[in-house]
Design brief:
This is Putative esterase. The protein is α/β, with parallel strands linked by helices. The chain is built from seven helices and eight strands.
């Protein structure tokens, strides 16, 4: 199964791309996973080897500047992207999969793509079953949003993070992203709201070699 779309962000006059890839035979209960930094996951990881029971939606924001504007909470495209995701992309995906039995719906993201994955989940908590985060460069503003969530979160959350990742600096600005510390803060917020969380602290740095090696455990969690 294959579909490709260019999705408009009408408020800011631009677009992003989304590619749906699924197994050839759509039988039984399948899982749906929206993958931010989708082009990178296709190029640098073995994620597609898990295609037998998962339908992927690989999302690509465009250039590095577009990614920065889209995935950061203070980015110029952030609100427009969240609106477009739910009003433009999700309806297209649901229409394409209308006859398919979807067991789980999840979001996957690395680094800043993890930040926007958390943001989308918080925007519509009841829609999602799983949140899968690899070295999420979670911003303080997203952690603060948890204070506005009422009631428990019925999520299963996978977090992997390197214990040395507080040393990682943004390639765009040079600022420290406090990745390890903020993942611990995020973990506490999730547990306080009764989410099921698997936190894996690794002796790794920030990069695709480690995220690809982490995929078998992550995908085992998404079951």
């Amino acid at each position: 199964m294959y579909k490709h779309w260019f999705i408009p962000m009408k408020e800011v006059g631009t677009f992003y791309s989304a590619t749906l890839i699924g197994p050839e035979h759509l039988e039984g209960e399948l899982k749906l996973l929206y993958v931010h930094d989708g082009i990178d996951y296709l190029e640098y990881s073995h994620l597609l080897t898990y295609q037998t029971s998962i339908i992927f939606v690989f999302i690509h924001p465009g250039s590095s500047q577009d990614r920065w504007a889209t995935y950061r909470t203070d980015g110029a495209y952030y609100r427009a992207y969240i609106q477009s995701f739910y009003q433009e992309l999700v309806p297209r995906v649901e229409e394409a999969l209308a006859s398919i039995n979807i067991k789980h719906k999840g979001l996957l993201g690395d680094s800043l793509a993890g930040n926007i994955s958390v943001a989308l989940a918080l925007e519509n908590p009841q829609y999602w079953s799983h949140l899968l985060l690899q070295s999420a460069a979670i911003m303080k503003e997203e952690i603060d949003r948890f204070s506005h969530i009422e009631g428990p979160l019925d999520w299963k959350v996978y977090q992997s993070v390197g214990r040395n990742e507080d040393d990682y600096r943004s390639i765009m600005t040079g600022e420290p992203l406090h990745i390890f510390t903020r993942n611990q803060q995020l973990n506490r917020e999730l547990l306080q709201r009764n989410a099921t969380v698997d936190l894996n602290i690794l002796d790794t740095d920030h990069g695709w070699v480690y995220w690809d090696q982490d995929l078998p455990q992550l995908m085992k969690f998404f079951k």
